[in-house]
Design brief:
The protein is of the alpha/beta class and 465 residues long. The chain is built from 14 helices and 20 strands. Helix 4 runs parallel beside helix 5 and helix 5 crosses helix 8. The structure holds zinc ion (ZN).
């Protein structure tokens, strides 16, 4: 069995910060031992990695990505190959992507399609959630089978009428089914029916620029949908995970539900923590780069999101990585913001941006690891295989240089998209080396991985309840 020792680093997990060496055997963490002890110095190894002055972190778990996702007549620009490679560059060693049920088709067909997109192409490990577009008797039955085989979370949409939208009755039925089979319902909580009216009115009045995308997708309509989703989940007796929470009032709804003891969870994304409607209002058509849903909010919302992350009102930071090139894709919406493909690149920079939040004093180091690694793994049934550094866990390990300075740019990033949402932003901290199940994927800032190393992860049910 091949053995690797990582020595001299500070091991940071969601629960501890330990000056320890780490022994990896055959792709899993075998042991931790204090620096300089007989135990640590007696380990023989095929490979030794010097982590002096570095953090030794569990690999990041990004529970919300959309590789090669079809949207509005085009596809998200990253494939599973390019997207998982970029993830590895940024210290993320597990993604959970969304397989999509096409209207009128089975869940199985959708899942098979996503397996075919990913199989043999990923640089790091991956699992799937299932998007329910068509809740009916047979898709409800299929949910049980999917949970049993490791697709244990189901996303529904209160937005996008005519595409992914489910009405309250369908949502309630799916939640009732989930409450019986252990599945976790994930909700895109925006009132899409009302938003479509405002879109139509804005366009009719000549308000067509990207910034109106943020304008029509009102805070009240995110908060209202979040409230409704909570109540439906409560009636169904099901847990609820609200994706990409961006508005302060939506955080309030989740906090209120949790205060009542309801199993309601919330996720936010770096774009809501670091960007705002100021970006959507950038001159010319630049704002299109920042069009995603839920939309970016005015800057004041950021402090509420940070507070929510500190208080555990929000448990997870994912990226909702869904990149569309500015040239040729975002441009489809020139003169009509509603035709701008919704989504932003981000899978590569989540760990770094959240480390910057540690530097800036928004989060502790352990909370950084918790919201980016441990909690997503727990939430989606991957813990402790993923999300921590402990004996028995997969050796998904990031050697992180907390003092390195870098400037985020499309010139240097590895995502297959022609712009960066954080162009020119300087951040402190950078990934040095990444192991996936003990195998180097990034070594001293060089990519040494390969497509097909990443394997599919059947998941257990939510462990956060
Ligand atoms: Zn998404």
């Amino acid at each position: 069995m091949s053995r690797t020792v990582i020595h001299g680093g500070l091991v940071v997990t969601a629960s501890d910060e330990i000056h320890a060496d780490v022994l990896i055997e055959g792709g899993r963490i075998a042991a931790l031992a204090a620096h300089g002890t007989d135990a640590a110095t007696s380990w023989s190894a095929d490979r030794r990695i010097d982590a002096t002055g570095m953090y030794v972190l569990p690999g990041g778990v990004d529970a919300h990505t959309h590789m090669k996702m079809p949207f509005g007549g085009t596809y998200a620009a990253d494939t599973f190959e390019t997207g998982t490679r970029a993830a590895a560059w940024g210290g993320t060693t597990t993604i959970v992507d969304f397989a999509i049920q096409t209207m009128g088709r089975s869940l199985r067909e959708g899942l098979d399609t996503w397996h075919a997109k990913a199989d043999g192409r990923c640089a790091v490990d991956y699992g799937f959630h299932m998007i329910l577009s068509d809740v009916n008797e047979s898709s409800l039955k299929e949910m049980d089978r999917l949970v049993a085989e490791g697709v244990t979370s189901f996303k529904l949409f209160m937005a996008y009428p005519g595409v992914f939208y489910s009405d309250d009755g369908r949502i309630l039925r799916a939640m009732q089914r989930a409450s019986g089979n252990g599945g976790l319902v994930m909700m895109h909580a925006e009132n899409g029916i009302a938003i479509d009216v405002l879109v139509e009115q804005a366009l009719a009045e000549g308000r067509t620029d990207p910034r109106y995308h943020g304008d029509v997708r009102k805070v009240a309509l995110e908060a209202e949908a979040t409230h409704r989703a909570v109540q439906l989940a409560r009636v169904a007796g099901a847990p609820l995970y609200v994706v990409h929470v961006s508005a302060d009032e939506a955080v309030d709804e989740i906090a209120a539900a949790r205060h009542k003891g309801l199993p309601v969870f919330g996720e936010t994304c770096p774009q809501y923590l670091f960007l705002s409607t100021d970006n959507l209002a950038e001159p010319g058509f630049e704002g299109a780069k920042y069009v995603c849903s839920t939309p970016l909010r005015p800057r004041e919302h950021q402090e509420v999101l940070w507070r929510g992350l500190r208080n555990n009102e929000l448990q997870v930071v994912s990226t909702d990585h869904c990149p569309f090139c500015f040239s040729g894709q975002k441009e489809m919406g020139r003169g009509d913001f509603s035709k701008i493909p919704n989504g932003m690149p981000g899978v590569e920079h989540r760990m770094d941006l959240l480390h910057q939040a540690v530097v800036d004093g928004h989060l502790s180091r352990r909370r950084w690891v918790e919201i980016a690694c441990a909690s997503p793994a727990r939430m989606f049934g991957l813990y402790p295989k993923k999300g921590t550094i402990a004996p028995g866990a997969d050796a998904d390990v990031v050697i992180y240089d907390p003092g390195a300075e870098q400037t985020i740019s499309a010139e240097t990033h590895h995502m297959a998209v022609d712009y960066s949402a954080y162009e020119g932003r300087r951040v402190t901290g950078q990934v040095r080396t990444v192991l996936s199940r003990g195998v180097p994927v990034i070594e001293d800032r060089a990519y040494v991985g390969h497509a097909g190393h990443g394997t599919y992860l059947p998941r257990g049910t939510c462990q956060y309840l």
